[in-house]
Design brief:
By secondary structure, the chain is α+β, with helices and mostly antiparallel strands. Helix content is 16%, strand content 40%. The two termini are 43 Å apart. Helix 4 (133-156) packs across helix 5, helix 5 (165-177) crosses helix 8 and helix 9 (231-241) crosses helix 10 (243-251). The strands form nine sheets. It has a 20-stranded mixed sheet that branches. It has a six-stranded mixed sheet with strand order 4-5-3-2-1-32. It contains 13 helices and 54 strands.
Length: 1015
């Protein structure tokens, strides 16, 4: 065999290994966005918006159209900006949170706490209708501010992509809320109390400084000092020069002086408010907190009826929420339902606005889950530690705030249909549902009296309630409904204030609740007998969950003890106040002060003077008439250009190739709802014949996602050698072109957010085109000739896979949960055999470290070792089945002596079958305050100690299972070492490792590098 033939064979092998082999073992993991429902969208136009909805929301949607136009008028006034004529921005509404989680408008998952989003590529606002009309109204205004931001940026040719989140979100909060806001004021009092006011650099640390709250407060200060009209120029200049330089440009003041003035103003304003109030650490008894070994965020406490247990929600380090049952006396954890991801029935727990509720025997716990596209009531049996029942309420897809009746027969809850929430009763014995209230208002947070005859809840209805003709959404007040008659009594002891978390006292003589009559959320008690209100707490920060309506208070029916969440030092702790330790203060004049300084963001002098204060105080201005009618039509789907991947071109000279020209561009078209996606990518390299590209389409409208692709991918390789032809030295350059043509049909069937089936059917056709360029070095002659091409290859490759992924990612690798993939792929055509894979991974989080384990088998059954695509390699870096320390690229001559025909050290890394096992102890070396031994958020780094093992074989060369350092047999290989993984700006993960390969004693320990995330 001549040298050119050998050279050609080696090059073909390299190509097959790296480039041609179909990615049939592609190990894509990740959770699923499941389309449980197929939504039949309709739409209508207002002057400035295109509003999409479906019939579940038709009752409230006309009011949403009027609400949107009023927000447009308001934001246009403060920004002095109008949309272009005929440019109607899409507003897309889902009926509830569960439906909203299914949207395809954004590709990633939408966490349970997200209430809406603005998407800049197509200028879309997407949001669910909320059970609370007040929240729906605010979120819509907030997101329309983002629409204005995008429109202004596009008009001026600036980008909002790199702008600080505190400015983008703070601007939306201030424009939609103004400066009266209990929650933001609470955050600022806490910052002043703990001397934690941030500078410009610190504001960018989202994990530490909430961009909504701090951005809101800073821009309220800017608007109060310089006028609301100064905020937009600051926004624009920040996009061009950054937030600090923009201070110089817009306000003619140094950024240092601006921050100093803000801090001084905040301290001067808030420090007097702290006087005469109780420090959070001194309120009752701190019960669940980070310093006591719990989470930074401890929410939604719920005491069992006997007072022995408490359920609560706790942040999971570094991401996620755990549902805990603890001993109510010691706080010691008893059961953790944090493994909800492992239950294929559950997608998530509703945590932002809902707590658990105990049965009268204190053995079972009801809570709200996201499951199968709707909310369900899950019944958790504490004794057996299992979810014994999942209750789906027909016709009521969105549920909140379950409350178990004292006799154990019924669960009350707040349910949302047609954009309005009402109180419902579900009878556990008859499985019948009764609608207890029936109106357009919000009805939330039901709780039973101890005799089971009445339910207290909060609502914006009743006398002086919300006026939908004027879209004037009023604050919630208390309401009491008689279970048998449905008669409702309304109660607002302070007048216009915020009321939440009502609970009957254990003797039903009074109601405990959270309210903010003086601008600070505290606990109060209303006595039915005396009709008087008593203050229970007077705290410096506030009794609160994540939002005003988050569950933050619970009472034991038997003991009368109170548990409640306190916001303090930028976290949420749960405190206990025993019944015998409750001290009350009679409120002589129970009247809310809407303008209390504790409620108002400074400067106070700007309270009702600026533009924003003016339009928020005038519900009529910009509001369409209540008899306005909109023409509703079926939504017509059409594709629109969503994104252009920037065109790239280059010219260069590469060894073996000569001068080369290359370039590429990509396009993505989607419909307005993101259900249909068409992508085109084109790449050119030098000659016309080297142009390649791919067209793909995927349909995600239904639960069964499907699509296809057609592609042509050219690959060009060149190699050179010096030879002798008739005694004259020549330079031969072999140019190899391989054209990969592929057509495939792909489907995915998600079973839940963590489990799915995948199926593909594809054909691949490989065409080879070789030519030889010969340079005569002495005479300067040159010839080019075609040489014999290898036979074309054709493969059909149907595939079926089952995938499980309930892991939670860290910055460089998964840290808790598990992954599995089982796949079978027959290859039919130029070669015929069956590929099979089983991949099993588990991650055990032992705060702060993770123990990770995996075992994987990849096999080509009924294959010959000479068949293309039949070979498995455990010696290639940057592949998931690589055994560290055994890279093909760092073998030395002393490991494969030239006098031997074979090299056992390399041969044992190649076969038709392979098995791999790995274990790692992962340490978050550098990260954030929440997850990292050292804090430096710009370069998250993981340190791990690892052990790898691998084995390959084929039918003609079976393995010998033994541990031996030196052997000519096919034996397992082992390595151990230490590695670090770096997350470079969220774009690339690099692993540097030091491995000791036990079956390469001559090589010994050495360093290596990979470019892939941790498995």
């Amino acid at each position: 065999m001549n040298s050119l033939s050998i050279f050609r064979r080696l090059t073909i092998l390299t190509f097959l290994i790296f480039f041609i082999a179909p990615d049939l073992f592609a190990q894509q993991f990740g959770r699923n966005k499941v389309q449980y429902d197929t939504f039949d969208f309709k739409e209508f136009d207002t002057d400035h918006f295109r509003i999409l909805f479906y019939e579940d929301k038709q009752q409230i949607i006309p009011e949403i159209g009027r609400m949107a136009e009023r927000w447009y008028h308001r934001i246009s006034q403060v920004t002095n900006h109008e949309f272009a004529e005929g440019d109607r921005k899409p507003l897309i509404f889902y009926a509830d949170d569960a439906d909203f989680r299914q949207t395809n408008i954004v590709p990633g998952f939408i966490p349970g706490g997200v209430r809406g989003l603005a998407e800049p590529l197509r200028d879309r606002v997407v949001m669910p209708l909320q059970p609370s009309h007040h929240i729906t109204h605010h979120v819509l205004g907030h997101e329309i501010v983002h629409s204005f931001q995008f429109d202004i940026a596009r008009r001026l040719g600036i980008s909002t992509g790199d702008m600080p989140l505190w400015l983008v979100e703070g601007m939306a909060e201030y424009y939609s809320l103004g400066r009266r806001h209990t929650q933001t004021s609470m955050w600022m009092r806490d910052a002043v109390l703990n001397d934690a006011l941030p500078g410009f650099e610190e504001l960018n640390i989202q994990q530490r400084y909430n961009p909504y709250r701090y951005g809101h407060a800073f821009l309220a200060f800017v608007g109060g000092i310089f006028g609301d009209e100064a905020i937009l120029p600051y926004f624009v200049y920040t996009a061009e020069v950054g937030p600090e330089a923009a201070v110089d440009s817009v306000f003619e003041e140094s950024p240092e002086r601006m921050i100093e003035d803000w801090h001084a103003h905040m301290r001067e304003y808030y420090e007097p408010q702290l006087e005469g109030r109780t420090n959070p650490d001194e309120v009752g008894e701190k019960f669940l907190s980070e310093e006591l070994g719990h989470g930074r965020v401890n929410l939604a406490p719920s005491l069992s009826a006997d007072g022995n247990y408490v359920s609560y929600l706790r942040d999971r380090i570094p991401f996620g929420i755990d549902f805990i049952v603890a001993d109510a006396e010691t706080g010691e954890e008893i059961i953790n339902l944090g493994g909800v991801d492992e239950d294929p029935h559950l997608d998530d727990i509703r945590f932002l606005t809902s707590a658990g509720s105990w049965d009268p025997e204190s053995r079972k716990l009801a809570f709200i889950t996201f499951a199968r596209g709707d909310n369900e009531i899950a019944i958790w049996n504490i004794d057996d530690d299992r979810i014994e029942q999942n209750i789906r309420i027909g016709g009521v897809p969105a549920l909140e705030n379950p409350a178990w009746s004292p006799d154990g027969s019924t669960i009350a809850f707040s349910g949302t249909t047609d954009g309005s929430s009402n109180i419902y009763l579900y009878n556990l014995e008859t499985e019948e549902t009764t609608k207890l209230t029936d109106d357009i208002y919000s009805s939330l947070e039901p709780q039973w009296s101890s005799d089971g005859e009445t339910i207290v809840y909060v609502t914006d209805g009743g006398p002086d309630g919300s006026d939908f003709d004027m879209i004037d959404i009023r604050p919630n007040r208390l309401a009491i409904v008689e279970v048998q008659t449905g008669e409702i009594f309304y109660l607002a002891p302070f007048g216009e204030a915020t009321y939440s978390n009502p609970h009957f006292a254990r003797d039903d003589s009074s109601i405990y609740f959270i309210s903010d009559p003086d601008g600070v959320p505290d606990i109060y008690r209303y006595s039915f007998e005396s009709e008087q209100v008593y203050r229970i707490t007077k705290i410096q920060t506030g009794i609160s969950g994540v939002t005003e309506q988050s569950p933050a208070l619970t009472i034991s029916r038997e003991t009368g003890d109170l548990l409640f969440s306190i916001f303090s030092q930028d976290q949420y702790d749960i405190h206990r106040l025993r019944h015998e330790d409750i001290r009350e203060e009679l409120i002589e004049n129970p009247q809310a002060d809407r303008d209390a300084p504790e409620r108002v963001l400074p400067p106070y002098t700007a309270l009702d003077e600026n533009i924003i204060a003016g339009y928020l105080a005038d519900p009529e201005k910009g509001l369409l008439s209540s008899d306005t009618e909109f023409e509703i039509e079926d939504h017509q789907r059409s594709l629109g250009l969503t994104r252009i991947l920037p065109a790239q071109a280059g010219v260069g000279v590469a060894p073996g190739f000569g001068a080369q020209v290359a370039g590429g561009i990509g396009f993505l078209w989607t419909d307005l709802l993101g259900d249909h996606n068409l992508a085109l990518a084109v790449e050119a390299r030098g000659r016309i014949q080297d142009i390649g590209g791919q067209v793909s389409y995927i349909n995600r409208r239904h639960r069964l996602n499907y699509g296809g692709l057609v592609s042509r991918v050219p690959q060009i390789f060149a190699g050179s050698r010096i030879a002798q032809i008739d005694g004259e030295p020549v330079l031969d350059r072999l140019i190899q072109r391989i054209f990969i043509h592929q057509a495939a049909f792909l489907t995915e069937l998600p079973l839940s957010e963590t489990r799915r089936f995948e199926a593909t059917a594809g054909v691949n056709w490989y065409v080879f085109d070789y030519e030889l360029e010969r340079f005569f070095l002495q005479t300067g002659g040159f010839i080019r000739e075609d040489i014999e091409d290898p036979d074309n290859l054709f493969l059909a490759s149907p595939s079926l896979a089952y995938v499980v992924d309930y892991s939670l990612p860290g910055f460089t690798s998964p840290i808790v949960g598990g992954r599995e993939r089982y796949q079978v792929t027959p290859l039919i055509g130029s070669v015929s055999f069956v590929q099979a894979m089983a991949d099993f991974r588990r991650y055990y989080f032992l705060d702060p470290v993770t123990f990770a384990f995996r075992a994987m088998h990849r096999g080509n059954y009924y294959a010959d070792i000479e068949d293309p695509f039949s070979t498995e390699y455990i010696g290639y870096p940057n592949s998931m089945n690589f055994v560290r320390g055994y890279s093909f690229f760092d073998f030395r001559s002393d490991e494969c002596p030239p006098d031997q025909e074979t090299c056992a050290a390399i041969d044992r890394l190649v076969g038709t079958h392979s098995v791999l096992a790995s274990a790692e102890l992962r340490i978050p070396l550098i990260g954030t305050d929440q997850f990292g031994l050292y804090t430096f958020r710009y370069l998250p780094t993981e340190l791990s100690f690892f052990a790898d093992a691998g084995l390959t074989w084929h039918e003609d060369d079976p393995p010998t299972i033994k541990f031996e350092r030196r052997s000519q047999e096919r034996i397992p290989v082992f390595s151990a070492g230490v590695s670090t993984r770096f997350n470079l700006f969220g774009a690339l993960i690099v692993e540097a490792y030091y491995a000791y390969p036990f079956q390469r004693p001559e090589r010994g320990g050495h360093f290596g590098l990979q470019f892939l995330p941790g498995w």
